[in-house]
Specification:
By secondary structure, this protein is an alpha+beta fold. The chain has two domains: about 140 residues, Mog1/PsbP, alpha/beta/alpha sandwich (Protein Transport Mog1p, Chain A, 3-Layer(aba) Sandwich), CATH 3.40.1000; about 150 residues, Protein Transport Mog1p, Chain A. Helix content is about 20%, strand content about 40%. The radius of gyration is 23 Å and the shape is globular. The structure holds zinc ion (2 copies). The site of one zinc ion (ZN) has 7 residues, from loops.
């Protein structure tokens, strides 16, 4: 670069949003409005208080990807079938956007109608995904500046083998080997379900802890909520400190004898078999929430589950 470009600063109060290996720093008032698909192919949209602000679409491709074509198809889809919606599409090279990091075959675009949008598409050789990124806002509301800040705080894949899942003031790190197989994003419950082969992992955050625990203890509440899931395990709960809170460690071997024997047999052959329940639950008083993490894994994978539990930032630390 001949001229020194001033690095774009991401505002200090922006918060991480993490989904399917993609991490982006966003204004704290933006919330997910759509979360679909898988690691291989998917889409998310974050909305501000008044309107959609950020869309990211990805698809895995091995081999050559014509990013130019991805962009032109996308722009065509915007104008197609929407009579009366006038959109001016600017030439991609003239949008003035710049990716802060080196990417393969980046294309920029800009369109303007009732709204204005700046976007970029690129192919990442590391995660082998094509990314289509776009941020929207009212015309003349410095959308380009916004796009630059968002791109400055965006990573399209994790640096290590742990993936950040972060939304609604919740965040945790899960080994990339786990795949998301289910999600529940309700007012009083955020739940992410993962699988890794036969291993299962469930991370849940319940709201209104004071109401849920008004007439019961955390232990009784857990046993009641998980009666079905815990049926085939001899679950023991013991007091433990978790992330600065008094909580319960969850542990239990399978109570199905043949399964236990099969697991022992497989272990003698050096293989892992998930026949134990491991996890923890705790009440985070500042957030008035109950956290519950549990996994069905091989005992050898116990440490990995403890690391997931530790990675959860359940309340904002003082002064942070
Ligand atoms: Zn990538
Ligand atoms: Zn907490």
């Amino acid at each position: 670069m001949s001229r020194q470009a001033r690095p774009v600063q991401v505002p200090r109060d922006w918060v991480p949003f993490g989904w399917q290996g993609i991490k982006v720093l966003v204004p704290p008032e933006w919330t997910p409005a759509a979360l679909t698909g898988t690691y291989e192919e998917g889409y998310f949209r974050l909305d501000g208080p008044d309107q959609p602000r950020l869309e990211v679409k990805w698809a895995q491709n091995r081999g050559f990807v014509d990013v130019e074509r991805v962009v032109s198809r996308y722009l065509q889809s915007l104008t197609k079938g929407r009579d009366g919606r006038k959109i001016d599409v600017a030439e991609s090279t003239k949008s003035g956007l710049k990716m802060p990091r080196e990417r393969s075959s980046v294309r920029y675009f800009h369109w303007r109608g009732e709204q204005e949008a700046f976007g970029a598409a690129w192919y990442c050789r590391t995660c082998e995904r094509t990314m289509l990124f776009q941020t929207m806002g009212p015309v003349g509301a410095q959308v380009q500046e916004l796009a630059e800040k968002l791109l400055a705080g965006l990573d399209d894949h994790p640096d290590e083998d742990r993936c950040l899942w972060s939304l609604y003031e919740f965040s945790c790190e899960v080994p990339t080997s786990f795949r998301l197989v289910g999600q529940r994003l309700l007012t009083g419950l955020l739940e992410l379900d993962f699988e890794r082969g036969r291993d299962r992992l469930r991370i849940a955050r319940w709201g209104l802890a004071n109401v849920a625990l008004r007439d019961t203890s955390l232990e009784e509440w857990l046993r009641d909520k998980n009666r079905k899931q815990w049926r085939s395990f001899s679950v023991e709960l013991r007091p433990v400190q978790v992330n600065g809170h008094q909580g319960l460690a969850i542990a239990g071997p399978t109570n199905i004898p043949w399964l236990h024997l099969a697991a022992i047999g497989l272990r003698m052959l050096g293989r892992h078999y998930p026949d134990v329940l491991r996890g923890a639950a705790w009440v985070c008083e500042p957030g008035n929430k109950i956290y519950h993490v549990e996994a069905v894994v091989d005992p050898a994978d116990e440490e990995g589950i403890a690391a997931i539990i530790q990675s959860i930032s359940c309340h904002r630390k003082e002064g942070a």
